[in-house]
């Protein structure tokens, strides 16, 4: 499956569960870590968990399982690593603190066709 398809599926799952400020960044020319980051925010630790579970479920339906999931205990930031795509699900204040969009500002924002 193409990385862009995975990234858009993750963003769609986040949107379906009412995530806010969803961004898909194409970073393949900047790093070997991943091709895309999907970044979004939730309104509570429960919402963040729900968003991550929906993302994981959506990709598992496509036959893709995460290589790893980090942050289940924190409630402020969950990371789902699908190899070519990494999803970051934040509380708004944690997202502002880490500023991934600024750190990866040279990445290309993907038009999700909203």
Strand content: 25-35%
Percent of residues in helices comes to: 25-40%
Q: Are there runs of 5+ residues with pLDDT below 50, and where?
A: none
Q: Helix/strand/pairing class, anyone? A: alpha+beta
The main pleated sheet reads as: 6 strands, mixed
How far is it from the N-terminal to the C-terminal residue, by CA?
22 Å
Determine the mean pLDDT. 94
Instruction: Tell me the strand order in the biggest sheet.
Output: 3-4-5-2-1-6
Radius of gyration: 13 Å
User: Secondary-structure element order, as H and E?
Assistant: HEEHEEEHHE
Number of helices: 4
Tell the overall outline: globular
Tally of extended strands? 6
Structure description:
It is a single chain. With 114 residues, this protein is an alpha+beta fold. Helices cover 37% and strands 25% of the residues. It is built from 4 helices and 6 strands, in the order H-E-E-H-E-E-E-H-H-E. It has helices at residues 3-16, 45-61, 92-98, 100-103, and strands spanning 20-26, 36-41, 68-70, 77-81, 85-90, 108-109. The protein has a 6-stranded mixed sheet. Helix 1 packs across helix 2 (45-61). The longest helix is centred in the middle third of the chain and has 17 residues, at 45-61. The relative contact order is 0.24. The mean pLDDT is 94.
What are the SSEs and their pairings?
Layout: H1 3-16, E1 20-26, E2 36-41, H2 45-61, E3 68-70, E4 77-81, E5 85-90, H3 92-98, H4 100-103, E6 108-109
Parallel strand pairs: 2-5
Antiparallel strand pairs: 1-2, 1-6, 3-4, 4-5
Helix pairs in contact: 1-2
């Amino acid at each position: 499956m193409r990385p862009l398809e995975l990234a858009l599926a993750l963003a769609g799952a986040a949107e379906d569960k009412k995530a806010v400020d969803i961004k898909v960044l194409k970073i393949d020319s900047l790093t070997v870590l991943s091709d895309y980051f999907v970044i979004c925010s939730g309104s509570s630790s429960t919402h963040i968990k729900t968003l991550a579970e929906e993302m994981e479920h959506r990709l598992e339906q496509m036959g893709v399982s995460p290589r790893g999931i980090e942050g289940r205990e924190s409630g402020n930031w969950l990371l789902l690593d699908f190899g070519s795509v990494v999803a970051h699900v934040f509380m708004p204040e944690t997202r502002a603190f880490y500023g991934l969009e600024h750190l990866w500002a040279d990445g290309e924002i993907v038009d999700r066709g909203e």
